[in-house]
Design brief:
Chain lengths: ~325, ~140
């Protein structure tokens, strides 16, 4: 197993190394999410279980908690709240559960119902007061936390014409992005003139399903990955989001997920079983930008990679999960 | 005596024979088109009628639901959250503004989906699970 790839390009000083393989899940593992403090991460999958992994010693991650009560079908995504006290899980049973530790152990204390069918993604706004969910029913819902316990629906948005795959908030403003099977990425904001959430922009350019989106830590860039085998980097220019660069020619199958680390490295999880890491390079002469592949492992897993997530504190650590039922912790230097 | 047949130019006669298939086909097409136009007109009328009736039933369901809610909760107005009363009145407004004929200036599909979404929001805020079961839209 070529777990260590020291870069295909000569002179690459980057090393991507698998330091641990975790295989407690049965069936596909759909998503991984780091706790904001970086000492724990959550994973979920087809087995309807949420597993919490904590660091026992250096490079040793142990499954401490398994949450099984809560969902009747596949859990598609788990996300920690910015404060780290809540965990949200989105499931194909049409509900979203909010877990907290108020009683000493993790319990599902709120269930968000309303979507007609499979909930595909859930995301917390940076202030922790708003939550967005999206579903196969083509809608995006925004939930508001009232009195610390209750979640009220603040808006139902039906801008997409197909299945919505993922929702993601901007890191420091109340701007929500969603991407869909209709090949677009849409941006939503609470419009004070209308007193309601509205779709501000539709980013078009991908030729097929857009599977995932994420803003980088500065909020200046939005990356989107698609079934058309490309990653697009969108930047705000004069109040308008424009495609600044397209990463193409590196991926052989659908790209299912991506993640930015705090140093601006972009990792992609691809259906060709590969894990790749890119870095932006600016060309001073022309003022244009390009992305360089700095590390790659073409056999990161034995099947499709579903999700990738960088540790929010340690920019050298990342986790991937796959259809092969495994999670892998990687060291990148 | 010259046979009347030969009044016609021989070339035209040959043309008649040569293009007879085309001519007959054209006649058939015109005839069929006339019949089809009459028949399909009726069919289209029925389709429009039924779609209209379906939409009408659905909007009527939403409208009576919110009107009933407004009537029964009039006394406790103060307890209704701002968000809820705003959404309800906006929904009521949208239903009232929905055109009663095939208005080409209104995007009917868009307005209808807007109304559906607002109704969902109302249900979520009221924490009730209501859906219009006869809604005939197929979803995949």
């Amino acid at each position: 197993m070529p777990d260590i790839i020291t870069g295909e390009m000569s002179g690459s000083e980057f090393k991507l190394e698998a330091i641990q393989t975790l295989n407690q899940h049965t069936g596909r593992v759909w998503h991984v999410s780091w706790h904001p403090e970086g000492k724990m991460f959550a994973s979920c999958g087809e087995d309807r279980a949420i597993r919490l992994w904590s660091m026992e010693s250096k490079n040793q991650w142990v499954n401490k908690v398994v949450l099984t009560e809560g969902h009747k079908r596949t859990i598609r995504q788990v996300t920690w709240s910015p404060c780290g006290n809540f965990l949200a899980s989105a499931s194909f049973d049409g509900t979203t559960c909010i877990w907290d530790k108020k009683s000493g152990q993790f319990e599902c204390n709120a269930t968000l119902e309303g979507h007609e069918n499979e909930v595909k993604s859930v995301s917390w706004a940076p202030n922790g007061k708003l939550l967005a969910t999206c579903s196969r029913d083509k809608s995006v819902w925004i939930w508001e936390l009232v009195d610390d316990e209750e979640y009220d629906c603040a808006a139902v948005l039906n801008a997409h014409s197909q299945d919505v795959k993922k929702v993601a908030w901007h890191p420091n403003s109340e701007l929500l992005a969603s991407c869909s099977y209709d090949n677009t990425v849409k941006l939503f904001q609470d419009d004070p003139r209308e007193g309601d959430w509205t779709c501000q922009t539709s980013l078009e350019g991908h030729l097929s399903t857009v599977w995932s989106i994420q803003f980088d830590s500065t909020g200046e860039r939005l990356a989107s990955c698609s079934d058309d085998l490309t990653v697009k980097i969108w930047k705000q220019q004069e109040h308008e989001w424009k495609c600044a660069h397209t990463i193409e020619g590196f991926h052989n199958r659908t790209i299912y997920d991506l993640s930015w680390n705090s140093d601006g490295y972009l990792a992609t999880a691809c259906g060709d079983d590969g894990l790749r890491i890119f870095k932006e390079e600016a060309c001073i002469e022309t003022g244009s930008i390009s992305y360089k592949l700095v590390a790659e492992n073409r056999q990161a897993h034995t099947q499709d990679l579903n999700s990738v997530a960088w540790n929010p504190i340690d920019p050298q650590l990342l986790v991937t999960c796959s259809d092969d039922g495994e999670l892998k912790v990687w060291h990148f230097k | 005596m010259v046979d009347k047949k030969f009044d016609k130019d021989i070339n035209d006669i040959f043309d008649d024979i040569l293009f007879s298939e085309e001519k007959i086909s054209q006649q058939g097409f015109e005839e069929g088109y006339r019949v089809g136009a009459t028949q399909e007109n009726t069919e289209a009328y029925h389709l429009g009628y039924h779609r209209g009736a379906e939409i009408g039933a659905e909007l009527g369901f939403y409208y009576s639901f919110i009107n009933h809610y407004i009537e029964t909760h009039q006394s406790e107005r103060a307890q209704i959250s701002d968000k809820l009363s705003k959404t309800i009145s906006s929904l009521k407004d949208s239903i009232e503004k929905f055109p009663h004929n095939n208005d080409e200036n209104t995007d009917l599909k868009d307005s209808l989906s807007n109304i559906r979404v607002k109704f969902k929001l109302v249900c979520s805020l009221l924490k009730v699970n209501v859906s219009f079961s006869e809604g005939g839209e197929l979803t995949f």
